[in-house]
Amino acid sequence: QVQLVESGGGLVQAGGSLRLSCAASRSTFSIDAIDWYRQVPGKQRELVATISTSGRTNYGDSVKGRFTISRDNAKNTGYLQMNSLKPEDTAVYYCNAKGYTSGWYRDVWGQGTQVTVSS
User: Is residue 26 pLDDT above 90, yes or no?
Assistant: First the structure.
């Protein structure tokens, strides 16, 4: 069973930075795309950023120019660097990875990590 382990969330003041990590538990998981989502209670989960196998990236309008998604394929890990954080960035952040392991296609979610930005 492949798992994604997230880390890096926490409390930060507005204008500060955080870096989230998302590590696959098995090196045999061949990851295609990595996505980061966020969710606020009572609202739908919002797509924040995506990165393809080749490194092509896309961002939600609300985070463009402030967040950077990256990946280290050798470590099977994805990252989300968040700069110039705003109180409205407060949410639980989830990573999602799609790929193959042992010949099976998997769509795996991380456990979520809380990001709280104080004003």
Answer: no
Distances in Å between the Cα of 46 and the Cα atoms of 1, 41, 50, 72, 100 are 26, 12, 12, 24, 25
112 near 8, Cβ under 8 Å?
A: no
Q: Record the tokens describing residue 13, joined without a space.
A: 């003041």
Structure tokens at 15: 């204008």
pLDDT tens across 64-103, in order? 999 999 999 999 999 999 999 999 999 999 999 999 988 8
Those residues whose C-beta lies under 8 Å from the C-beta of residue 95, and which sit 6 or more positions away, are 4, 6, 20, 22, 34, 35, 36, 37, 78, 80, 109, 110
Angle at 113 between CA 110 and CA 116, to 5 degrees: 155
Q: Which residues contact 20 (CB under 8 A, 6 or more apart)?
A: 6, 7, 8, 9, 36, 79, 80, 82, 93, 95, 113, 115
